[in-house]
Amino acid sequence: MTQRVELVFFEGCPHAAEARRRLKLALEEAGVPAHWDEWDTGLPETPTSYLKFGSPTVLVDGQDVTGGAEGSGMGCVVSGAPEVAVIAKALRDSRE
């Protein structure tokens, strides 16, 4: 089964670059190919279903890896980018 990995962010979010870096490391740690889709909540072509997530949010098979509450897509996640270990665990757990 192929996992769907996504990064939701908005351009200008100070945590987006770090989220990308951590996501890449987590994928390597979990032995998953380093590929994910990105959704910029500031772009009109982004599906409305992604607008409920703060920036940055990492989704594995549609689930926020931090279990965070949904908010506004134009708001920053206060805690910043998810930790590598949290992302890697979500990747491993979704394969079970």
Summarize the structure.
By secondary structure, the protein is an alpha+beta fold.
Describe the structure.
By secondary structure, this protein is an alpha+beta fold. The protein contains two helices and four strands. Strand 3 and strand 4 form a beta hairpin.
Q: Strand tally, please?
A: 4
N-to-C span: 10 Å
Pairing-aware structural class of the strands and helices? alpha+beta
Biggest pleated-sheet summary? 4 strands, mixed
What order do the SSEs take from the amino end to the carboxyl end, as H and E? EHEEEH
Index terms:
globular, 96 residues, single chain, 2 helices, four-stranded mixed sheet, alpha+beta
Write the layout of secondary structure elements.
Blueprint: E1 5-9, H1 16-30, E2 37-40, E3 57-60, E4 63-64, H2 84-95
Parallel strand pairs: 1-2
Antiparallel strand pairs: 1-3, 3-4
Helix pairs in contact: 1-2
